[in-house]
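Technical annex, item 7. During the second reporting period the consortium partners agreed on a shared format for inverse folding records so that results from different sites could be compared directly. Each record opens with the tokenized structure and is followed by the designed sequence. A conforming record, contributed by the partner at site C, is shown below for reference.
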């Protein structure tokens, strides 16, 4: 009954879903391409057995890279199909994998669309990254005999309360997932309370992420453009945070320092540029590819896939999404790059990692934008303190690596023998 009601709501929302796709396509044209894939229609075809990996957006796609590469190396007889829901996720997958993987959008959670997807690619195994729990997708995979692994799974207390309101629907989906690999003991406990089975803690794949090819050279190029001045990086900032930061800087500047702002979402690049212009602040855009003049104190990182280089080129990094109630973006990448970290009070997406990074001295918690600027001023003037934080961050990340190997072992356990050529899939409503 719950699943039928859920599916009915999906049908009622279809006009809104299509309108939203078209609306988002104004700024991100990728949303207006390959719309057929959203309903299970694909041009790409696999010529070998398929291992399917779903990573909803840019962050999950980058986190999935170590596992995807390990699967490609371990199973050269298979093809990897990587699906996303967002245009930025697909662009990221294209940058990371090129022709080594088949890329597509995951179909919306309509039973007919999911069946088309499964019949077209016939995956031997599905890996869903983090918290991608779609009831009809999970059910159709169970009917088709496709084992599912929920990998790098995380579930904040806030999200757990949301799922609990739909407990029968969540339980019916989680019970059908073959294995769950949680990031932390807390994530595992919350997932088990909702009905997940075969749950084990494997750690966070983000600790295994390696810098993209060319990161070091790009970081040197950025550093040359910044010159000798200290750099505060505001990384992956979210709506409203840039204004708070600029207001705080107006009350207490960072003498002789550059503030580099890199918004989380590309559709906000022009919005943040307009904010800087309204405040009369001189800035250079990354897309302009030029050095900052001595009287220019702001840099706008309007590029994708270069965050690792930004961290490596910065003297200090603030993690966006943490000043306001967005739950913080990934601080692990910053620590791994040796960037001392400042992080605000909202950290529920990376609660355990943030808590441990602060405890280890790799990060410093700040209360608000004013506290952020005050701490940045102090740290940018203290080379030794930044060096200690940098070393602590690198050590912190090194000690938590290994999730890829643990997840690969689970994949090997779940992979069935190849089905006979042409055998039908037993999918049905």
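Designed sequence (site C submission):
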């Amino acid at each position: 009954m719950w699943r039928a009601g859920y599916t009915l709501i999906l049908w009622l929302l279809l006009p809104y879903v299509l309108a939203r796709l078209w609306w988002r396509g104004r700024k991100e044209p990728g949303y207006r391409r390959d719309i057929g894939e959203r309903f299970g229609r694909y041009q790409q075809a696999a010529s070998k057995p398929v291992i399917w990996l779903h990573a909803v957006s840019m962050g999950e796609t980058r986190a999935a890279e170590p596992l995807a590469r390990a699967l490609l190396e371990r199973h050269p007889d298979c093809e990897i199909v990587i699906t996303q829901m967002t245009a930025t996720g697909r662009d990221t997958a294209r940058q990371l994998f090129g022709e080594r993987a088949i890329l597509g959008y995951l179909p919306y959670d309509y039973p007919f669309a999911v069946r088309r997807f499964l019949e077209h690619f016939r995956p031997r195994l599905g890996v869903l990254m983090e918290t991608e729990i779609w009831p009809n997708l999970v059910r159709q995979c169970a009917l088709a005999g496709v084992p599912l692994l929920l990998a790098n799974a995380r579930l904040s207390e806030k999200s757990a309360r949301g799922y609990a309101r739909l407990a029968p629907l969540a339980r019916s989906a989680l019970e059908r997932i073959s294995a769950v690999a949680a990031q932390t003991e807390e994530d595992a406990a919350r997932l088990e309370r909702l009905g997940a089975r075969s749950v084990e803690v494997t750690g966070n794949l983000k600790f295994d992420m390696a810098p993209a090819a060319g990161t070091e050279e790009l970081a040197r190029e950025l550093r040359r453009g910044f010159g000798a001045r200290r750099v505060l990086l505001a990384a992956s900032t979210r709506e409203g945070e840039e204004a708070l930061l600029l207001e705080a800087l107006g009350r207490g500047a960072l003498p002789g320092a550059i503030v580099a702002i890199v918004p989380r979402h590309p559709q906000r690049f022009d919005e943040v540029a307009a904010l800087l212009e309204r405040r009369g602040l001189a800035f250079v855009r990354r897309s302009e590819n030029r050095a900052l003049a001595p009287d220019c104190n702001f840099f706008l990182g309007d590029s994708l896939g270069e965050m690792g280089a930004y961290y490596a080129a910065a003297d200090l990094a603030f993690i966006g999404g943490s000043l306001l109630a967005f739950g913080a973006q990934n601080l692990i990448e910053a620590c791994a790059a040796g960037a001392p970290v400042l992080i605000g009070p909202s950290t529920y997406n990376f609660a355990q990692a943030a808590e441990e990074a602060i405890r280890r001295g790799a990060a410093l918690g700040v209360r608000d934008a004013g506290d952020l600027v005050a701490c940045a001023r102090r740290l940018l003037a203290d080379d030794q303190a930044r060096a200690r934080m940098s070393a602590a961050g690198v050590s912190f990340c090194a000690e938590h690596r290994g999730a890829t190997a643990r997840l690969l072992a689970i994949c090997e356990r779940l992979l069935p023998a190849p089905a006979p050529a042409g055998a039908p899939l037993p999918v049905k409503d």
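The chain has a mean pLDDT of 93. Residues 2-203+403-414 form a domain with the Rossmann fold fold (CATH 3.40.50.11720). All partners now use this format for quarterly exchanges.
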